[in-house]
């Protein structure tokens, strides 16, 4: 399969087929939301593993449940860090959609596996590595921008740590879901991520619009934090693929 060098909307096998036409209907992501990695170091091995996993319902169920766990961890992070009287409607919507994504992938996992699942050993891949990836990203960004709003922050100010961590995670999520959707189409799987992708892009648009208003250093920090995330993702991905291979 031929790899498209677009790091944001990775695609394999560019033949003009009905599957490619369906893929073209998936919402494209603006270039400014591309991950920091511009080479196919992650897309190629991840795509190969996904193609293998999609051929095995049991392995696919575990992978889908792992994606559900990552969405659940994200929604829990929002709940813990943002719950309170100042929570705005946009944050509440983000929380609701992340929770719905966790349910969406859990439902798909249980359908593929044929039985109820939890986030238990044997039903997920590399949970400690996933938690460490997200935790280190959160800690590194929070050290730079602080967890609480400044004392002179205007009413409605959203903490920068929440905005940056969430937006950087969404950058990786949109990249991954585009790649995953392409593999699902190539493998003939019925699962469709079009709605999930559209919502993730919407999150990114909302989060970065707020950052542009609140933080004069937003352009530089956003690029810096994307590079930070890319380094952490390089460590996390091999652990995930190793667990996928062992099953």
Can you walk through the features of this model?
Helix 6 (160-187) runs antiparallel to helix 7 (194-214). The longest helix is centred in the C-terminal third of the chain and has 29 residues, at 218-246. The chain is built from eight helices and no strands. The chain has helices at residues 18-24, 43-54, 57-82, 89-113, 127-145, 160-187, 194-214, 218-246. It is mostly helical and 247 residues long. It has one domain (40-246): Ferritin, CATH 1.20.1260. The radius of gyration is 18 Å and the shape is globular.
Fill in the keyword field for this structure.
single chain; 247 residues; mainly alpha; Ferritin; 0% strand; globular
Produce the secondary structure layout:
Blueprint: H1 18-24, H2 43-54, H3 57-82, H4 89-113, H5 127-145, H6 160-187, H7 194-214, H8 218-246
Helix pairs in contact: 1-6, 2-6, 2-8, 3-4, 3-5, 4-7, 5-6, 5-8, 6-7, 6-8
Classified by CATH, the class is Mainly Alpha
User: From N to C, what is the helix and strand string?
Assistant: HHHHHHHH
Q: What does the average pLDDT come to?
A: 83
CA-based shape: globular
Number of helices: 8
**Termini separation (Å)?**
24 Å
Strand content: under 5%
The number of domains is 1
**Rg calc:** 18 Å
CATH architecture: Up-down Bundle
Helix content: 55-70%
Q: Strand tally, please?
A: 0
Runs with pLDDT <50, length 5+?
Answer: 1-8, 10-24
Q: Largest sheet at a glance? A: none
Structural class: mainly alpha
Which topology does CATH recognise?
Answer: Ferritin
């Amino acid at each position: 399969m031929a790899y498209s060098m677009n790091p944001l909307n990775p695609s394999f096998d560019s033949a003009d087929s009905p599957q490619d036409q369906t893929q073209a209907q998936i919402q494209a992501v603006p270039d400014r939301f591309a991950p920091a990695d511009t080479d196919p170091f992650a897309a190629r091995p991840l795509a190969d593993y996904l193609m293998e996993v999609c051929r095995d319902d049991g392995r696919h169920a575990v992978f889908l449940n792992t994606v559900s766990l990552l969405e659940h961890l994200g929604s829990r992070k929002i709940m813990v860090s943002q719950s309170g009287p100042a929570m705005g409607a946009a944050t509440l919507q983000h929380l609701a959609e992340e929770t719905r994504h966790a349910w969406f992938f859990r439902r798909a996992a249980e359908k593929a596996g044929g039985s109820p699942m939890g986030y238990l050993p044997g039903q997920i891949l590399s949970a400690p590595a996933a938690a460490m990836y997200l935790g280190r990203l959160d800690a590194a960004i929070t050290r730079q921008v602080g967890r609480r709003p400044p004392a002179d922050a205007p009413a409605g100010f959203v903490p920068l740590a929440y905005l940056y961590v969430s937006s950087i995670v969404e950058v990786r999520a949109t990249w991954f879901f585009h790649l995953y959707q392409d593999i699902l189409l190539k493998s003939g799987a019925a699962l469709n991520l079009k709605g999930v992708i559209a919502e993730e892009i919407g999150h990114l648009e909302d989060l970065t619009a707020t950052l542009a208003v609140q933080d004069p250093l937003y352009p530089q920090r956003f690029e810096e934090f994307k590079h930070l995330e890319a380094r952490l993702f390089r460590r996390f991905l091999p652990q995930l693929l190793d667990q996928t291979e062992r099953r």
